[in-house]
């Protein structure tokens, strides 16, 4: 298997006349927590939708978890987990019932045992009998992660995972993401606007501007390369400003 969990070659997406992604070539090594940054409309959700096989590119290729998104989409789906920005559940069912439904849908072996294992890992045991409609945003996000990892994916995609969370929720999510990476060995790909969180959570970043990848490096190298800037937020704004005419 390749050293890369994700690699794209000249990935392009057009929505009619709108060019959302412009020949994007990007590689994320196995074991990274990769944060994709970019202004509103930069193309972040489009990339995630293509890499998770929800959307077809106009041209170009991508390999995720060792499988080509064009020729082996089913294998890609078995290899990845995905937490969308607004995760959907059956709100009148309990957490346990929801997870059992999704576990059966994705053919998880011994689903009851696996659900217990996942909830234990996420520090979420004891909520199985609670109706999802009563969950806070933070609890829904944790339930969304439980659902996304039931089938033991090797690559996990998170779209704006901290959106709408309070500081405690953000801190708990950070702890979970780092544990998934360090204890279970998952490669994580996340879209985010919360730059302070990226410094604490991610090992590498990419910056997307109007469909073009304008920067990619490790967080440590990025912070070292811009000693005059106080924070990753300042570095991001500095790099983005360099793109403007
Ligand atoms: N279905 C669509 N039809 C037409 N244009 C679209 C469609 N989906 C996205 N776009 C456009 O493509 C560009 C990239 O959109 P995308 O949602 O990928 O950006 P984003 O970086 O995720 O933005 P945000 O941070 O606001 O979520 C934007 O200009 C958007 O308006």
Concise description?
The protein is of the alpha/beta class and about 240 residues long. Helix content is about 35%, strand content about 25%.
Question: How is the main sheet built?
Answer: 6 strands, mixed
The rough form would be described as: globular
Question: The CATH topology, please?
Answer: Rossmann fold
Rounded average pLDDT: 94
Give the total of beta strands: 10
Quickly count the helices. 9
CATH superfamily: P-loop containing nucleotide triphosphate hydrolases
CATH class: Alpha Beta
What share of the residues lie within helices? Answer: 25-40%
Please identify, by name, the CATH architecture: 3-Layer(aba) Sandwich
Based on helices, strands and strand pairing, what is the structural class?
Answer: alpha/beta
Distance between the termini: 42 Å
Helix and strand succession?
A: EEEHEEHEHHHEHEHEEHH
Pfam family, one: ABC_tran
InterPro entries: AAA+_ATPase, ABC_transporter-like_ATP-bd, ABC_transporter-like_CS, P-loop_NTPase
Protein name: ABC transporter ATP-binding protein
Family: Belongs to the ABC transporter superfamily.
Tell me what the structure shows.
By secondary structure, this protein is of the alpha/beta class. The chain has one domain: Rossmann fold. 37% of the residues lie in helices and 27% in strands. The protein has 9 helices and 10 strands. It has helices at 44-51, 73-79, 95-105, 111-121, 137-149, 167-182, 195-201, 219-225, 232-241; strands spanning 4-15, 18-29, 33-38, 59-64, 67-68, 80-83, 155-159, 187-191, 204-209, 212-218. The longest helix is centred in the C-terminal third of the chain and has 16 residues, at 167-182. The mean pLDDT is 94. It comes from Arthrobacter glacialis. GO terms for molecular function: ATP binding; ATP hydrolysis activity. It holds the Pfam family ABC_tran.
């Amino acid at each position: 298997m390749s050293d890369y969990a994700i690699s794209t070659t000249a990935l392009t997406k057009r929505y009619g006349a709108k060019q959302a992604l412009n020949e994007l070539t990007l590689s994320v090594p196995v074991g990274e927590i990769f944060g994709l940054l970019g202004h509103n409309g930069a193309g972040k959700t489009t990339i995630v939708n293509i890499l998770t096989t929800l959307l077809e590119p106009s041209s170009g290729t991508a390999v995720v978890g060792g499988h080509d998104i064009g020729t082996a989409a089913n294998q890609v789906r078995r290899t990845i987990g995905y937490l969308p920005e607004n995760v959907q559940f059956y709100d009148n069912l309990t957490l346990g019932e929801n997870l059992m439904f999704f576990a059966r849908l994705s053919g998880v072996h011994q689903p009851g045992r696996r659900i217990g294992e996942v909830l234990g890992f996420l520090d979420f045991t004891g909520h199985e009998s609670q109706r999802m409609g009563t969950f806070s945003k933070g609890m829904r996000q944790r339930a969304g992660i439980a659902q996304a990892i039931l089938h033991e994916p090797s690559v996990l995609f998170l779209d704006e995972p901290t959106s709408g969370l309070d500081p405690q929720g953000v801190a708990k999510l950070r702890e979970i993401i780092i544990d998934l990476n360090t204890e279970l060995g998952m490669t994580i790909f996340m879209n985010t606007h919360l730059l302070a969180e990226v410094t604490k959570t991610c090992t590498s970043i990419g910056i997307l501007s109007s469909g073009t990848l304008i920067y990619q490096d490790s967080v440590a190298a990025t912070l070292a390369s811009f000693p005059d800037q106080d924070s990753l937020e300042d570095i991001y704004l500095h790099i983005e400003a360099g793109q403007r005419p």
